[in-house]
Amino acid sequence: MNRRPYLLIGNSAAGIGAIEGIREKDPVGEITVVCKEPHHTYSRPLISYLLAGKVDESRMPYRPVDYYEKNHVEALLGVEATRVDLGARAVDTSDGCSVPFEKLLIATGGRPIIPRDVEGAEAKGVFTFTTWDDVRRIQEFMEENDVTDALVVGGGLIGLKSVEALSALNVRAVVVELADRLMSVTFDQTASNLAQRALERAGVEVRCGTTVTRIERVHGRVAGALLRDGSKIECRMVILAIGVTPNIDLVQGTEIGADRGIVVDDYMQTSVDGVYAAGDVAQAVDLLGGEKRPIAILPNAYRQGRIAGINMAGGRRSFEGGLAMNAVDICGLPTISVGVTVPNGEDCEVLSNLDEKAPVYRKLVLKGGRIIGAIFVGEIDRAGIVTGLIRDKVEVTGFKDLLLTDGFGLISLPADYRKHVVSGAGIEV
Amino acid sequence: MKRVVAREELCIGCRLCEIHCLVQHSKSKKIIKAFRDERDSIVPGVHVEEKGYVSFALQCRHCNDARCIDACMTGAMRRDPETGAVLCDEDKCVGCWMCIMVCPVGAIQMGADKHVASKCDLCIGAETPACVANCPNEAIVCEETDE
Predict the structure, then answer these.
(1) Most C-beta atoms within 10 A of its C-beta, which of A170, A267, A294, A360?
(2) Of A145, A131, A374, which is closest to residue B102 (Cα–Cα)?
(3) How close is the nearest chain B Cα to the Cα of A237, in Å?
(4) Which CATH number covers residue B42?
(5) How many CA atoms, within 13 angstroms, populate the side-chain half-sphere of residue A8?
(6) Which residue from A425, A65, A257, A42 is spatially nearest to B73, judged by alpha carbons?
(7) Closest partner CB to A54 (pick from B7, B94, B102)
(8) Would you place residue A274 in the very low, low, confident or very high pLDDT band (cuts 50, 70, 90)?
């Protein structure tokens, strides 16, 4: 078999980003994609919308149906990469082939975490929720068992979107979150309270500070759940959504260095020359903290993939660092949260305003004259400007009083930064 | 590609650009009808910012390195291969607001119905975007760049 110039393992945001990055530099070099899921590239976050019936299957593709053809990509879908052989520089696949490569990208994503200390987690009716096939399994189970109540374990992005979908299907749903608040990575208590109110209005019950310890079974099927605080939940189905962990199986026992995820440098290259990693599987530098850690969010995955692709094709582009952030609409309540939103030291300053009734909540966390975190709930329209200030580490002391005012915009920023963001030379803003 | 350039020293903050953007994207295409009947259902893609005597009109920069395309979870936000414009396919958008979160100019808004993102489309098909064509003071102009 010919040595493939570019071999990509993974067909989601990071893999697609890599295709597009490679094509920026190399319009013709043959690209091969291997992915264990059989589907054309699809939008993973749309699975909750699909479950809710808000989109149909025709809207699932992340790129048009002629995408592989147009980009000269050979897509081996439903084929799993089983081993990376660095000596032969080839990847073994589940269909018994060995695919030699010149440049390799590993974008195997994350795997849902199954809590080990939950009794009965193997029962029928317990699901994780990260793939299109999960939607099909859940739909099938709900139909067969006439599910009218469910428990969602985990109040992060996946948990909240799945509980929102269930409530849209008129399933009585309870969500439990071990932390003291929802979306605990980027929400503070106030934002969590507002999200909880929106969920409760949609009929969802929210319980923070507890988790499930036992899933009750009857004939091997979910028949209820016991929480750590001793209370019992009526439910015929459980969705486990406590997070994902980098899927690093493929590199274990190889020279490709891994910690929590596959460790990459600023160019998305692993410890092995010509082998790259991107997306939820990668452990790349964090923009704010400076240490390397996996950040499993889609914008990060696509961008890392694209940068990896550019570099695989001979370019030289560095990754500026990941930034934890989330945009999520919770039962009609739009929210955006970015970076460190709960002060992490005494030298932090917090600016905020809250209109509980509307509800509108804005909060900024400043450290050393720079914004390190932001929350917008209810009104989000110009939040991206603040994300830009965080990313560019702009000194904001001189105009911090304007940051949370209604008229806030580019005009509130220093003229030179304004000029920078509206894209440089010749633009006289 | 075509780029719209703002000249703040010439902008008088009349907001005619916003109105003509609205008319261009209205059903009626008639200024009085559009302004009277449709302004609650259309969010203009251009927005005048004003502070004291300074004002300027701002719309999507159609960035070369467009973070909104990176962040779009559905594939709705894409670059038009012919014009280079960054466009949002409203049939694909589900209103997750990732694009709003990452746009450093704040040029993307929630659409009037709050279900999909709304932004400047450079008036697809038109020779000159409506905001540029109707600015009385040449405070927004169109430039062709090599990129």
Answers:
(1) A294
(2) A374
(3) 26
(4) 3.30.70.20
(5) 33
(6) A42
(7) B94
(8) very high
Contact A46 B104 (CB under 8 A): no
Reported confidence tier of residue A81, pLDDT bands at 50, 70, 90: very high
Query: In the numeric block, which tokens belong to residue A246?
Result: 């980098």
* Residue B103 in this model has a pLDDT that exceeds 60: yes
**Domain range for B34:** 2-144
B34 CA: distance to closest CA in chain A (Å): 23
Q: Give mean pLDDT, residues B93-118.
A: 95
Count of domains forming chain B: 1
Distance of residue A142 Cα from the nearest chain B Cα, in angstroms: 25
CB nearest A429 (choices: B56, B98, B103): B56
Residues of A in contact with B58 (CB under 8 A): 409-410, 422, 429
Whole-angstrom CA distances from A160 to A83, A229, A425 are 35, 21, 43
Question: With an 8 Å Cβ cutoff, are A383 and B106 in contact?
Answer: yes
ipTM: 0.95
What's the mean per-residue pLDDT of chain A? 95
The beta-carbon neighbor of B97 closest among A63, A336, A391 is A336
Element housing B47 (H / E): strand B46-51
DSSP character for B129?
A: -
Measured distance CA(A217)–CA(A314) in Å, rounded:
56
Q: How far is CA B127 from CA B19, B30, B42, B123, in A?
A: 18, 19, 22, 8
For the stretch A197-206, pLDDT in tens is 999 999 999 9
- Asked if A299 and B9 come within 8 Å (Cβ–Cβ), the reply is no
Task: Say if the Cβ atoms of A422 and B6 lie within 8 Å.
Answer: yes
Q: What is the pTM of this model?
A: 0.95
Domains of chain A (ranges, CATH numbers): 4-111+245-312 (3.50.50.60), 126-242 (3.50.50.60), 332-421 (3.30.390.30)
Identify the residue among B1, B17, B101, B144 best suited for mutation to test binding to A, counting A beta carbons within 10 A and taking the highest: B101
pLDDT band, very low/low/confident/very high, at B147 (cuts 50, 70, 90): low
pLDDT value of position B146 = 66
User: What confidence tens digit (pLDDT) does each residue in A231-268 have?
Assistant: 999 999 999 999 999 999 999 999 999 999 999 999 99
Distance between CA atoms of B143 and B3, rounded to whole angstroms? 5
Query: Mind listing the pLDDT tens digit for each residue in A368-387?
Result: 999 999 999 999 999 999 99
